Amino acid sequence: MPQFVAYNNKVEVNGQTIQSFIKGVTPQFRQKVIQILANNGISNLEKLKWYNQQEWLNAFKQIYDTIGSHTLFSIGKAIPDSATFPENIVSLRDALQSIDIAYHNNHKGGEIGYYRLTKFNELERKAMMVCKNPYPCPFDRGIITSIVRKFKPVDSLNHEVELDKSSPDKLDDEESRTYLISW
To answer: Is 112 helix (H, G, I), strand (E, B) or coil?
Structure first.
């Protein structure tokens, strides 16, 4: 399935995660994003309520088309600050693996895909993650970037999360995308 298309129409995402989505937008676009969510059936947002994932993905698509991919990257970076993540994470490896746990904890109702850490080399300070899900690439990259920034070793000054240009692209109706991570 390509990005913006739920794997199952019965899948739902919790309100707390969608609230993170709103918090990730700069104040100048916040009202516009709230209106886009409402136009796609998501209004009167409640933290503990569940919302249809496809409606949320439709809002992602509209934001991508009208505001741009940089906004989706910013929204992705905000997700780890508000969505429910496992507690007591102490290492970058654990933090990257927790993305999939959090993803599954914040969705219900059917197949949703995954965020899979496929390589992790602490000595080389490199990792690889495969994202198979219906969310847009800039959003995935934002989530990974935020996690790396928060959990990279203290002696690591820089970090980078790049699309593996040799991997398939969700924009080309592929199901997954690979990210190369360095710190």
So the answer is: coil
Who's near 105: CB < 8 A, 6+ residues apart? 84
Bridge partners (DSSP) of residue 129 are 117, 179
**Secondary-structure breakdown of the chain: helix, strand, coil percentages, each rounded to the nearest 5:** 45, 20, 35
Contact 44, 4 (CB under 8 A): no
Number of domains composing the chain: 1
Q: What confidence score (pLDDT) does residue 2 get?
A: 77
pTM: 0.92
> What pLDDT score was predicted for residue 145?
98
Q: CATH no. for residue 49?
A: 3.90.1520.10
Domain of residue 107, residue span: 1-183
User: 52 in helix, strand or coil?
Assistant: strand
